[in-house]
Write a structure and sequence with these properties.
Layout: E1 3-10, H1 11-19, E2 23-26, H2 36-47, E3 55-61, H3 63-66, E4 71-72, E5 77-79, E6 95-101, H4 103-114, E7 116-118, E8 134-140, E9 155-158, H5 160-163, E10 172-174, H6 179-183, H7 188-202, H8 206-214, H9 216-231, E11 234-241, H10 245-257, H11 264-275, H12 279-292, H13 299-309, H14 323-349, H15 364-372, H16 379-394, H17 402-413, E12 414-416, E13 422-424, H18 432-435, H19 452-458, H20 465-474, E14 483-487, H21 496-501, H22 506-515, E15 522-526, H23 527-533, H24 538-545, H25 549-558, H26 572-590
Parallel strand pairs: 2-6, 3-11, 5-7
Antiparallel strand pairs: 1-11, 2-4, 3-6, 7-8, 8-9, 8-10, 12-13, 14-15
Length: 599
């Protein structure tokens, strides 16, 4: 290590260096993930003169040393859940500092003072650009703290139009994109005086003018405090100077382990980005493409997939990482990319959405099989893989020891060839392969065998991921459409007022409200049909939707509606018990449920 220095600088000076790209981000940093509430809280803390922590920077000298690594610009204009830092192509300085710790805080300061925050307006349609207006950080001079609120000073991201509103509760000072305030070349007192003069000159209505004049002292004090405690406030920084990346990574790991703990794959990613300059760009591209398909996949899962698909140790540690293994991931990246995308397409084909995937790691063995089979999937492969995915969710297989589970499934599927490479033991995916292994046997901790206890538990499960997976067992032919778990007898029928009207006792009302979300009152409906049904009484909707008797009987058969039971809501309890009996019968015919052996 060449040197470690401790010093102070002002927020204004640090942000100016970010603007000039003298302070930049190394590829080992994660994406900016703070929402506007966290940004506001940071500014509020500064106004209260609270410390916001030390910033750790890596100083690199010499253009050749700088060009050995990949760096990114800070984000100025933040868009909720979609922030992609731009890669720096041509570095123009022979000395730069890369921020190792404090990216979320520094980006919050930078976007708050220099940029804006974009997010969808509530109840507006996401397909329209107007639903995502630019919101700039403002400070409400007349803010009165609400009870139980931790917003002491009234910072808020609002539009330019909203920022011009003046009344007895609102008098907004623009914090963001206000270079005159930020620089204040003639001093803050001069700026404030001119600001108030211009404000009075621009206003034409007496009410607004009176509010400005009445609160002139408050304006002066608040803006001065904002300037002193935010713009020119001093922050502490530790600057590490070394051309040796291994030393820098050691500092990075040590610092982060004291804050947000880095997972093994986070550390692995930091190492890969240091040795594979396109890693972040490639992985971000894949994550964005998967996001566009409707699934929320993070870097952690991508890196874990890289380990599994390249047949490396799933429990890999940074300390033992070898350069040739990074090279292996780089060489296999197109195949890894393709296997994950094919997996996502398969999830769509099965009508699985992001919200029903309780464990994202559970899709990695599917990607592994697709990768080893070079994407040539048969109908039986898909059937077996779907059975696997549903089963591990129903049995909560990935609830603990996920890495061990991944490694075990991979070992069951693969065989080692004479040249040291791996291929599939069997060319087709049979779920029985997993069931036959002791690790997943009935007496094992990670048993995938269905038991009578499981069946009992299923009918005690309230509407959620688990019931969706159970219904998926009953609806094996779902195809490439978004399906919803629908209450057969709609929820609005179970209000206490309506149940009292039907003459039920309070004890019976509690019971009916308890069972309304259970499996016997749930079905899977395509999105369009679910919207048509809405809150209509089931019997009424069924008659309207299927006036033809044959079509009606087909719907009832497909959705396991008992044919000889009243569908009137007043007979719900009888319907519930009849459908429960029917579903149990269907499940027992489809699957073998066994008793758990006694010790």
């Amino acid at each position: 290590m060449d040197s470690v220095k401790h010093s102070t600088t002002t927020i204004r000076e640090a942000l100016a260096e970010i603007e000039e790209k003298k302070i930049i981000l190394p590829s080992i940093q994660r994406k900016f993930i703070w929402d506007q509430k966290k940004i506001v809280k940071l500014f509020d803390s500064l106004m209260l003169n609270y410390p916001i922590g030390t910033f750790l920077l890596w100083e690199i000298n010499g253009i050749d040393n700088i060009n050995n690594y990949v760096f990114y610009q800070f984000i100025e204009n933040v868009r909720r859940n979609s922030n992609w830092n731009q890669k720096i192509i041509d570095q123009q300085y022979d000395q730069v500092r890369a921020l190792l710790d404090g990216q979320q805080r520094m980006t919050a300061l930078y976007s708050g003072l220099y940029g804006n925050f974009i997010y969808k307006t509530k109840f507006k349609h996401k397909s329209k650009e107007a639903s995502f207006p630019n919101r700039i950080l403002h400070l409400n001079i007349l803010h009165k703290k609400e009870k139980d609120s931790d917003n002491e000073y009234g910072f808020k991201h609002i539009t330019e139009h909203e920022g011009k509103i003046i009344n007895n509760n609102n008098l907004w000072f623009r914090v963001g994109q206000n270079s005159r305030f930020r620089k204040a070349p003639n001093g803050i007192d001069s700026f404030i005086k001119k600001y108030i003069e211009e404000k009075i000159s621009d206003l034409t209505d007496d009410q607004s003018l009176n509010i400005i004049r009445k609160n002139q002292g408050l304006i002066e004090d608040t803006v001065k405090l904002l300037y002193d405690n935010v713009v020119t406030a001093e922050i502490t920084q530790t600057i590490v100077s070394s051309p040796d990346l291994d030393e820098v990574l050691e500092v990075f790991v040590r610092v982060n382990s004291g804050g947000i703990k880095l997972s093994k794959t986070d550390l692995l990613f930091s190492t890969i980005t240091a040795k594979w300059e396109e890693a972040r760009e490639k992985i971000d591209e894949l994550i964005k493409r998967i996001e566009d398909a409707g699934f929320d996949i993070n870097t952690d899962l991508i890196m874990r997939t890289c380990l599994v698909l390249t047949d490396l140790d799933v429990l890999f540690k940074v300390s033992g990482f070898k350069k040739e293994n990074v090279r292996k991931i780089i060489n296999k990246w197109p195949d890894i990319y393709e296997a994950l995308m094919r997996t996502i397409y398969l999830l769509q084909e099965w009508s699985f959405t992001d919200k029903v995937l309780k464990s994202k790691n559970s899709i990695i063995p599917i990607a592994y099989f697709i990768h080893k089979k070079h994407g040539k999937m048969t109908a039986n492969d898909k059937k077996g893989l779907k059975q696997y995915l549903i089963r591990v969710h129903l049995k909560n297989t990935y609830g603990s020891h996920g890495d061990t589970v991944l490694g075990k499934i991979r070992d069951i599927l693969r065989k080692k060839n004479k040249d040291g490479s791996y291929s599939l033991k069997q060319n087709d995916f049979f779920f029985q392969q997993l069931l036959s292994d002791d690790y997943f046997s009935i007496t094992a901790e990670k048993s995938l065998v269905l038991t009578n206890k499981d069946l009992e538990d299923w009918f005690e499960s309230e509407k959620g991921v688990r019931t969706y997976m159970i219904l998926s067992l009953l609806y094996p032919t779902l195809k490439e459409s978004e399906y919803h778990q629908d209450h057969i007898h709609p929820e609005n029928q179970f209000s206490r007022a309506k149940l009292r009207k039907l003459g039920y006792s309070e004890e019976k009302i509690d019971y009916l409200r308890d069972i309304k979300d259970l499996l016997p009152n749930l079905e899977l409906l395509p999105d369009a049909e679910n919207k048509q049904k809405q809150d209509k009484p089931f019997e009424t909707w069924l008659k309207e939707q299927y006036p033809d008797r044959g079509e009606k009987n087909n719907f009832m058969s497909k959705n396991f509606i008992p044919p000889k039971v009243s569908l009137d809501f007043s007979d719900f309890e009888f319907f519930f018990e009849a459908r429960k009996k029917l579903l149990i019968s269907v499940l027992r015919k489809k699957f073998k449920f066994v008793n758990i052996p006694e010790d």
